[in-house]
Amino acid sequence: MEVEVFALCDAATDSFGKLNILGAFDRINGRQFPVVHPHCAVALRVRFERIEEGNHRVKINVIDADGKLVMPSFEGNIAVRFPEDVQSVCANLILNINGIRFERPGQYSIDLAIDGRQERSVPVNVVLMKTEVPPEESAGEQ
After folding, report:
1. Nearest-angstrom CA–CA distance, 14 and 112
2. N or C: less crowded end of the chain, CB within 10 Å?
3. Which one-letter DSSP state was computed for residue 50?
């Protein structure tokens, strides 16, 4: 098994086995906290060899720097089946996330486990944007 794609993005679709990804990112800017990111997706593409045919458990966690869950875990299954004439197949999985809430700035992580084994992690930096006062507004202040 090989994880070919594991990304946080604005949106993703699966079109007849093609994984389409729009706007992959690893940073969320917030002007104040908590910050709620309205919509994003986790896109996953895994290649399986013929010997790995069968059902595989998938678990995705979004955690903070202390290892605490930011949202409930996603748990699902991938049923891998092979046509006679191929030696490997890909499975795509898209997890749409609406309204994910980050309580404070910091380093977060999206972790992927398949069949109970940690496979990949995507870091997510949640940053407090510094708002600068434009020069024309601060000119009269002293």
Report:
1. 19
2. C
3. G
pLDDT of 139 above 80: no
Residue 53 and residue 81 in contact, taking contact as beta carbons nearer than 8 Å:
yes
How many DSSP H helices and E strands does the chain contain? 1, 9
Q: Which residue has the tokens 């972790």?
A: 111
Cα→Cα distances 133→83, 127, 136, Å: 62, 19, 8
Which residues have CB under 8 Å from 98's CB, separation 6+? 38, 39
Residue 132's CB is within 10 A of a number of other CB atoms, namely 8
pLDDT tens, residue by residue, 53-83: 999 999 999 999 999 999 999 999 999 999 9
Q: 107: buried, middle or exposed (CB in 10 Å: 19+, 13-18, 0-12)?
A: exposed
Of 111, 112, 115, nearest in space to 54 by CA: 115
By 3-state DSSP, what share of the chain in percent is helix, strand and coil, each rounded to 5?
A: 5, 65, 30
Query: Is the CATH number 2.60.40.2550 carried by domain 2-138?
Result: yes
